[in-house]
């Protein structure tokens, strides 16, 4: 019996009102809402040539059940963190042409990977600026990390560093670009977290699929966790920590009994379902229905997920919660660990405020300060995941929007800072499915260009999705043409 026959049978038996019956057949509900429900139950499968609707199951065996995506806003210097370049000290004060190395400004890679709204001097400074901190080799792998990261340096044997990333936006819209894959001049695309949750659904029906901690705090950076044409239900859900109300408007009013609220939600749900029949193509309505249902369940689950009462003092100290300078980042990263333990698929963490790593001047002072705020908490996260046996299930991604120039930023008479640098920078991954104590790729001797084959930001997306069991090329929406660069290519070299 097909769906139409089943609807007719229910109508004739009086189980389906005439209005609903006509609406179902005449307004497309059969192919949309009901189809969606059958898809959720794994009953619908498209033909080989048809659009492949995700069914909550991975495309291939997944290595990572959850992702903790840690983003440092502003652009940390790869040169003073995870890609030290001794040549900068040796040739400090000289121009690129005065070094024995090819002038990176004349490399064809420069224009190939540059895309500015207007032509700017910005990344064309040429007087070499020395490293502002020392560095050493660490661990059995002997990986070099600068001295501002002593705690994380203890974890290098668990990390895969990718030192040849590049992007195209030389301004802070690159913060959106590393999450969506698109330059600000292009059509906005869904964020990597939205694609992950769209492809896999939820691992916990009482918590959001995609949680955002600590930001973004500006309206112009919301694309970093938005879902756009995928539908609002796949956008990240920001939670506020250190508050009695972590989920805004998610707490039951004290003058309303739990039973009263339950009755209200049941009534709203019935009304919403009727509206869904009348307006089957209203994605916002369907998302709202789901959000009401989820909000009711989250009232208990969210506060418990962000409550540290069950965490030992030793664990809290591991994340730096006992020190004012590391407390904020520590709280957000510890919460991320608690959420992935509870089945949240994707947690996007902003451990520091917007733009704090943007060191156009006083790089030494600013980077030392910011590194001190993050070093212990991020190392604490890796150590905590490892001792809890979660490194086999959780993937940690640590990134920023771009690096910093090897040359001094000379605008306005600058002498002690580095400008934005999209041509080469470093990210790292640790945990499920990636090699330990490994370095992939490189920048040139001066740290300017990501050496071919470099990796555009969507390669990082494809890598994360692959480890979650998803093939980025199989994630599409009818009527939406994605560019080939949107899909990216997994960085296979770092896989175990």
Task: Walk me through this protein's architecture.
The chain has 496 residues and is an alpha/beta fold. It folds into three domains: 1-43, no CATH class; 66-242 and 308-494, Alkaline Phosphatase, subunit A; 250-305, no CATH class. Helices cover 34% and strands 11% of the residues. It is built from 15 helices and 13 strands. The chain has helices at residues 3-12, 18-26, 30-40, 86-90, 108-112, 150-153, 174-180, 192-200, 258-278, 283-305, 313-318, 324-341, 363-387, 457-467, 484-487, and strands at residues 66-72, 135-138, 143-146, 159-166, 210-213, 237-239, 346-349, 394-400, 403-404, 420-421, 425-431, 438-440, 455-456. Strands 1, 4, 5, 6, 7, 8, 11, 12 and 13 form a nine-stranded mixed beta sheet that branches. Strands 2-3 form a two-stranded antiparallel ribbon. The two termini are 48 Å apart. Mean pLDDT is 85; it is low at 1-16 and 18-50.
